[in-house]
Amino acid sequence: MAATFSFAERNNSGWTGSIANLNFGSTDSAELTPLDYPITAGSNSYEKWIVGSFSGTFTKIDNIRFWKSSGTYVTGEVIKWTGSETTFSTPTQNTSTVAVGSVPESEPASANVTIGGSLTGSLTATGSTDYIVLQLQTTTSTPAGAVNQKEFTLAYDEI
Is the pTM of this model over 0.85? Predict the structure, then answer.
């Protein structure tokens, strides 16, 4: 038997498990439709607070790596992130003080997402990573309309 993986998102109204998308927008909501919640050029999306959730039968999950695996940025757009937040805070549309690094654009050589506050942390039963916090930020130079679709990848070692 193998581990089962899904992303789960937490926002101010609670948890949404097994999310199908990480669409960014101008509201604090899981699986939102960007057209309904556009981000004005020069402002930010609400933060996305997600975790990688694991269930099923496995001996050990570790070496969690997260990156933007496809999609290009438009002028003035960047996605900031952290993969090591252990305590939830209400998502904000203000410039994040949590998601401050640029999302890696290629697979990291080693873990960049924590489990239990440590990059060397592991799961030996059902559980999740620490929070991965993301925020799409724009400048006044960002063109109007939809931005390019991006894909994020979370990889892990399983024993």
Answer: yes
